[in-house]
Amino acid sequence: MEKQVLGGLQWRINVPNGMSKELDPECSCYCKPWLALKSLVGGLVARVLRFLDKAWALGVSEPKKVIHGFKVGIALSLVSLFYYVRPLYDVFGGNAMWAVMTVVVVFEYTVGATLSKSINRATGTFLAGSLGIGVHWVASQSGEKFEPIILGISVFLLASAATFSRFIPSVKARFDYGAMIFILTFSLVSVSGYRVDKLIGMAQQRLSTIAIGTSLCIFISMCISPIWAGDELHRLIHRNMEKLAESLEASVANYFKDNQSGYPSQEDNSKKTQAYKCVLNSKATEESMANFARWEPAHGPFNFRHPWKEYLKIGALLRECACCIETLSGCLNSEKQGMEHLKGYLKHASMAVCSHSCNVLRELSKSVKTTTKSSKLYLSVGEMKFALQELQNALKSLPTQLILEQVLASQANENKSTTKKECAPPVMEVIPLATLVSLLTEIVARIEEIVDGVIKLAELAEFKAFNEEKIAQNQSTSNNQRSDNPSCETEP
Amino acid sequence: MEKQVLGGLQWRINVPNGMSKELDPECSCYCKPWLALKSLVGGLVARVLRFLDKAWALGVSEPKKVIHGFKVGIALSLVSLFYYVRPLYDVFGGNAMWAVMTVVVVFEYTVGATLSKSINRATGTFLAGSLGIGVHWVASQSGEKFEPIILGISVFLLASAATFSRFIPSVKARFDYGAMIFILTFSLVSVSGYRVDKLIGMAQQRLSTIAIGTSLCIFISMCISPIWAGDELHRLIHRNMEKLAESLEASVANYFKDNQSGYPSQEDNSKKTQAYKCVLNSKATEESMANFARWEPAHGPFNFRHPWKEYLKIGALLRECACCIETLSGCLNSEKQGMEHLKGYLKHASMAVCSHSCNVLRELSKSVKTTTKSSKLYLSVGEMKFALQELQNALKSLPTQLILEQVLASQANENKSTTKKECAPPVMEVIPLATLVSLLTEIVARIEEIVDGVIKLAELAEFKAFNEEKIAQNQSTSNNQRSDNPSCETEP
């Protein structure tokens, strides 16, 4: 209901009990913009507060990222000394700018990334600088008329080729930044060379400022609470194993427990059940970390030539397993209705397979985490296989059990003289159980592949033997305790 | 067998037929380095040739990337005119460097990415420049002693905060580059301001060169064969649907066909079966494309506020479906042995479900590709559901059929008077079929979710209605024919 009252709008709403209620008339023209401004400012403040809240939460959960921020701050303050300290400024002058720029652009979160970018930057600058000076010399020999033409064409051709090369996967993975710096330096050198004659001196100064910037970055990133890409990859892999175990456990437990304790338990578990999603999305992070880890010197338990590629293989296997768990949890969720009485027969055996599989995954995770060959691994795998066999046997004996139950039920019915008679469960009702068994079988098969992958890694990376395990375990627990955090770590 | 002969090594190998054969003695010391050099050069040449081969293949399969290279070349050649043309150089001088730098850094593959980087760069530079000048002014007012201290502290604090902010997901997704440029410009301005007094004039010049560089980039990337992030995302999504259909078809066909025609067919199909892997790995690309697409102006069938987020939702659903297909193909591969005679009963019904599902996926793909509401979609979905019902019925009637067959077999056996008697198939043999049915059911359920997603997209994006379909189809076929290519497009 709407009524026009003397130039102002009046709103009236009908309340369910039959009465109608008059709403406050609209504000006058003066207070409109004021209200709009107020809501705008309020909205902005709320957004800023929410943003700060998020930032604070991130800082608390991952203090390493805050420390990284401070490290960059320190590096920049140090490099700006080039401007403040008179003797340094006298040597480098305006070229000190390149040191600042290098620090901003090259300083990355992990040591490996910083090293890779530094090497890329230095190599790209050096190559492009020498080529630029060469082209500039050739152009200057060919007369004033042809000089800009030669320079223009060379810039066009080299920039096109270098830009295209950045799409080639092998270049993209390792030298993307170097190619960009190559284009940048080449155009700057060959073009600015048209005016500046002291090219070689300038190139020397620029290279030395870049060298100073990169070495400062490398020094700070390696000395002040270093974050190694290798460590991150290592941690990602063993935490992903734990996540898979968590997911698998939660989804199977959900399926069997849900109907006794009601919905709340499902919601409690939903976060655990979804843990596999992190695993599914970790491919890009794993690849970039493995790429950066290659540049890193020996650190902690990792040698210079640590087999990082094996981590990628294990990561791929983990993702395949996660896929299977995803399907399992999907199937279990969609087929929850009916056949409650059938579930009971396989509950024990299924839970056993699940818990033994999780044991294997956790054993693998521990083995990777502590870089020791696990003494219990083969035992756990054996138990897992045995449990699977038991489950398959339980499914095999299901028809017999069902017939028995049916006979008992019909006897009971006859005793009670009721006409209702339970019929044999149709094959459709067994399908969900068969699927469960089949998917668990598949998951076990994939876990076995992961076991093989980890064994290969243990061989190549020369993991410590059984008897050294305990010492290493104690050490690594104290090392890793502070660095572990429970959030999804696919995007560091 | 090894024998020392007068200072040189002689190698002898035993050939299977009992004779032993003398190998060529080792080269003298003179020819060793020569051989090493030869093999080194040979290896290098081979590597370079392989690299060029790869680059050529990439160029042939995706000419758009070659064109992008040329576009960058053109932009750089144009921007270097600032150095060659005397009046321009007189205005901008050394600051022309910033235009070159802007072009190199800002020019990206898609229009959206270029726009996003340009806006980030301009905003970052402007904000940091004004803040830097402000801080510089405050510092200069506080006396010569405190000036470096204030500047140093402000650089440290702002650089730390901005670096940390780059880890916050919302900033990382949209303003990562802007934050970096902010740090860079702020340090350069506030620090170099210590020496240079003509700060404001310099800032103006720098901003105008950056404006020239970015507008040149935007102009070239939008006018010369533009590559829209929105288009790429759109294409990725509908091609992923086709890939899922291909994979599903190939893996089910493999399962049922393999044993009649032998192994070769499996190898032929393996590429098709693996097509889902591209879908699984496309998350990062989809997200960055959707991010860039938001910046793009209206183009082709897409408005400025095209619902790009819906594409991400559909992408996630596609990945879930791909996961299911992954598991299906894994299960089918690992359970190929045995129960050949059982397969026959469900072959027809399974193939029907599979082909109808693929029809739905292809119909969806066509609908998205042509941005028209499909007229046949509901019909196809109905057929798919009906086929699934048929398959489930077939599985239900399996026991009856098996008993019938058993009776017939035993009759035949009695007629032939043999003692061998086939026993009833144990439940274990039905499991693979039950799994197949169950997974197909799950896949159908997920495809239905995709259907819902596409219907929602069609509503939000105002897809054309049925009757306009034909015209649009003809248009888009001619438009898309040249841009479609069969490789995995997750990493453009």
Automatic annotation (TrEMBL), chains A, B:
<comment type="similarity">
    <text>Belongs to the aromatic acid exporter (TC 2.A.85) family.</text>
</comment>
<keyword id="KW-0812">Transmembrane</keyword>
<dbReference type="InterPro" id="IPR020966">
    <property type="entry name" value="ALMT"/>
</dbReference>
<feature type="transmembrane region" description="Helical">
    <location>
        <begin position="66"/>
        <end position="84"/>
    </location>
</feature>
<feature type="transmembrane region" description="Helical">
    <location>
        <begin position="177"/>
        <end position="196"/>
    </location>
</feature>
<feature type="compositionally biased region" description="Polar residues">
    <location>
        <begin position="472"/>
        <end position="492"/>
    </location>
</feature>
<feature type="transmembrane region" description="Helical">
    <location>
        <begin position="208"/>
        <end position="229"/>
    </location>
</feature>
<feature type="transmembrane region" description="Helical">
    <location>
        <begin position="146"/>
        <end position="165"/>
    </location>
</feature>
<dbReference type="GO" id="GO:0016020">
    <property type="term" value="C:membrane"/>
</dbReference>
<keyword id="KW-0407">Ion channel</keyword>
<feature type="transmembrane region" description="Helical">
    <location>
        <begin position="122"/>
        <end position="140"/>
    </location>
</feature>
<dbReference type="Pfam" id="PF11744">
    <property type="entry name" value="ALMT"/>
</dbReference>
<feature type="region of interest" description="Disordered">
    <location>
        <begin position="471"/>
        <end position="492"/>
    </location>
</feature>
<protein>
    <recommendedName>
        <fullName>Aluminum-activated malate transporter</fullName>
    </recommendedName>
</protein>
<keyword id="KW-0813">Transport</keyword>
<feature type="transmembrane region" description="Helical">
    <location>
        <begin position="96"/>
        <end position="115"/>
    </location>
</feature>
<keyword id="KW-1133">Transmembrane helix</keyword>
<dbReference type="GO" id="GO:0034220">
    <property type="term" value="P:monoatomic ion transmembrane transport"/>
</dbReference>
<keyword id="KW-0406">Ion transport</keyword>
<keyword id="KW-0472">Membrane</keyword>
